Amino acid sequence: xxxxxxxxxxxxxxxxxxxxxxxxxxxxxxxxxxxxxxxxxxxxxxxxxxxxxxxxxxxxxxxxxxxxxxxxxxxxxxxxxxxxxxxxxxxxxxxxxxxxxxxxxxxxxxxxxxxxxxxxxxxxxxxxxxxxxxxxxxxxxxxxxxxxxxxxxxxxxxxxxxxxxxxxxxxxxxxxxxxxxxxxxxxxxxxxxxxxxxxxxxxxxxxxxxxxxxxxxxxxxxxxxxxxxxxxxxxxxxxxxxxxxxxxxxxxxxxxxxxxxxxxxxxxxxxxxxxxxxxxxxxxxxxxxxxxxxxxxxxxxxxxxxxxxxxxxxxxxxxxxxxxxxxxxxxxxxxxxxxxxxxxxxxxxxxxxxxxxxxxxxxxxxxxxxxxxxxxxxxxxxxxxxxxxxxxxxxxxxxxxxxxxxxxxxxxxxxxxxxxxxxxxxxxxxxxxxxxxxxxxxxxxxxxxxxxxxxxxxxxxxxxxxxxxxxxxxxxxxxxxxxxxxxxxxxxxxxxxxxxxxxxxxxxxxxxxxxxxxxxxxxxxxxxxxxxxxxxxxxxxxxxxxxxxxxxxxxxxxxxxxxxxxxx
Length: 568
Known about the structure:
The protein is α/β, with parallel strands linked by helices. It is built from 16 helices and 27 strands. Strand 15 and strand 16 (322-331) form a beta hairpin.
């Protein structure tokens, strides 16, 4: 383990030894004769989400530069390996490599992404929450290979599985108590052992559909990491790295290699980790940071393959301990040569995908972004694109199921729409989850409870145009156990179609099946009755874009505050 200040303590001990026992072997010649430390380079990424092609819009820039695309990522990785000692380089990832992917990858159940990252030299990756989007059996197929049980080998070639090892120490089969995947791996470099523990965020069941995590249990990240760190030490491993799919956020003033005002789950998790753990490669929050938390190096490389974290370790050859650890987040710029093998892979899958991706499904008059507006100092407001999606879901269920309102979860809106023609591929990139629409009955009282739960979960539900209500920033926030106790939503202000909601009246409301199952912490929605499952959310979105084109960004006036409506 590496503990800051260790060298200083060692120097003091040497001085005491000289005083007590006479000369010791500390001459320059003798010191030079000691075994030199082993230099190990870790190249890390996270939250790739199947972005084989360079992401567009704000998702394709970072630190003021256009970035991303697996053709460029592979080249940067190769150059970083060349700059280090190639045989001493290990490439790792902290989850969400697949899931919520653009059409080019998702249409083939993310097999193209696994092939691309395997070809790019990935060695180990933790399992993120999105790796469970299609369930445990599909994740095991992604690891081990074989054609999809329903769609077969879509591109006409056998799928051989991942060329890297997925790790997850805290996702257990409920029936047996055994880990679903390998919990850790040991990698030898010039005789020293480096241990990698994979970790999925404990809260995965709250943010993945219940079908995706059926039969699984998820344990505390820090407790599990400590358990396996002890097991690794018993096997003679002293250099320990955790690949953790959970993260944090630094202040907006921080750059990609800063750690300003760090907050989020990663802080508590790292503080509770055993001192023997040296490095935590994190993810999930799509943020970039480079931190020292409680004597551990903690990093994150943002998302979509826009950064690679270059981590340099010096490991004592005799003890196996990490002597020093330092990191640098490197931008995956697009000014390098494209890796020709990655280009060939992309071209092959694009050919198989055919004209479906390029089919125009609508048009926008302006760019419509997923960016949330600020609501009393926090990003808890509406989103132009989120509102459009809610309108699309209402349009798909108003006549069909007598819905009078629709709500969309923010995590389901994955990309912006640029101005001009909208292709099927672009629409898919915005809504890639293939969730079904669910229309259900809620009383007015339950609706108020759902809206109050937004402030407990820290997530805003984007409302359809039929919805309006007022928020009091000075109101109280409910609790996880009793979200209905909150008073953030001004009573009497909630309207549907311009008519005040009666708490005793029942209303038909549309959400996706993820939310209907209590996803994102919206347990109040599980109290709905008379559920009817409708079409796929993407189909509703495409139909709306086609029918309403050209589509403009809606005015953000569905959620207002008491400052805007003082009489509320």
